Amino acid sequence: GAVVSQHPSRVICKSGTSVKIECRSLDFQATTMFWYRQFPKQSLMLMATSNEGSKATYEQGVEKDKFLINHASLTLSTLTVTSAHPEDSSFYICSAVDRETQYFGPGTRLLVL
Amino acid sequence: AQSVTQLGSHVSVSEGALVLLRCNYSSSVPPYLFWYVQYPNQGLQLLLKYTTGATLVKGINGFEAEFKKSETSFHLTKPSAHMSDAAEYFCAVSDGGNNRKLIWGLGTSLAVNP
């Protein structure tokens, strides 16, 4: 149980384009999901908290207009990186909360050329 | 405020040896404590967690951890390391509140030598 999927697993895009990443809880409903960014050899950096049916809460320093989050249902949250630039290249990981525990997706590797 | 300190960013053990990964936390409220493992280019997998009750917690892959309030520690152990245990390990704490946010340690990279 408590399986979380992410799609796509890897994406390469041109600078200036937008990229959407999906995060799904497959066998449970998640009122809350989180989006993280991870740089090589580093810990997770929380970007935002996604709550179903309400606006996402962004961490300090994260541009909400650049990283659009939509939590449209109890099993799906999406992160859209708008007008992506090479500095947005990173590993993005989502998690979904089941009771007190976060369960993580496999991550999405974004490379912006 | 809560914080997590993982002592040792890199730990190396021989196959079959004891694995000990250290985690100390600070919290003004009773903490919820978690250990996650991350293999290269993958997401995080929950190894074990402590919320309430028994302080010795058993997890997957033969790992266990003991919550010691007096020492504010939640060290992760495994009696005998396998080559497949080589990975990055993260300790995290939450306050158990409704926001479910985790405060993360910086991680410990475990190498297992044949």
Q: What features would you highlight for this structure?
A:
heterodimer; A: mainly beta; seven-stranded mixed β-sheet; 11 strands; about 55% strand; B: about 110 residues; five-stranded antiparallel β-sheet
Describe what this molecule looks like in 3D:
The complex is a heterodimer of chains A (113) and B (114). Chain A has no helices and 11 strands. Chain A has strands at residues 4-7, 10-13, 19-25, 32-38, 44-51, 57-58, 67-73, 76-81, 90-98, 101-104, 108-112. In chain A, strands 2, 4, 5, 6, 9, 10 and 11 form a 7-stranded mixed beta sheet that branches. With 114 residues, chain B is mainly β. Chain B is built from no helices and 11 strands. In chain B, the strands form 2 sheets. In chain B, strands 2, 4, 5, 9, 10 and 11 form a 6-stranded mixed beta sheet that branches. A 5-stranded antiparallel beta sheet of chain B has the order 1-3-8-7-6, with no helix packed on it. The radius of gyration of chain B is 14 Å and the shape is globular. The chains are: A mainly beta (113), B mainly beta (114). Chain A binds chain B through residues 2, 4, 6, 32, 34, 42-44, 46, 49, 91, 93, 95, 97, 100-107, 109, and chain B through 32, 34, 36, 41-46, 49, 51, 90, 94, 96, 99-102, 104-107.
